[in-house]
Amino acid sequence: MEIWINPACSKCRSALSLLDAEGADYTVRRYLEDVPSEDEIRAVLDRLNLEPWDITRTQEAEAGELGLKEWARDASERGRWITALAEHPKLIQRPIITADDGTALVARSEDAVRQALTHNKG
């Protein structure tokens, strides 16, 4: 499994601690440094079964500068949202865990991390 993290994020650090405590085998991606491409974001959205606006941190200053809260949340604007996430990775909700079974989830709670662990057992 892979976990997208920002090391400054307390929820990311908590998720890593839980994964370590459970002895999970995972890869860390510091997505602010190793920025996901638009195609990678699309693939993760498909695995999450979410839309880009569902994983956008609209309270970030960059979101305000872009005027994201005013953008339409529909198919016609989906590409614009994905481009914004690729160009401004700080806007991506975190942590995101992609499990080996093809699923993914935004792991902002201990329960979500535990759910990812169940999807990673083969």
From TrEMBL:
Among the Pfam families in the record, one is ArsC
Signal peptide per UniProt: none
Which PROSITE patterns does the record match to this protein? ARSC
State the family named in the UniProt similarity comment for this chain. Belongs to the ArsC family.
Q: What is this protein called?
A: Arsenate reductase
- Give the species this sequence originates from: Streptomyces alanosinicus
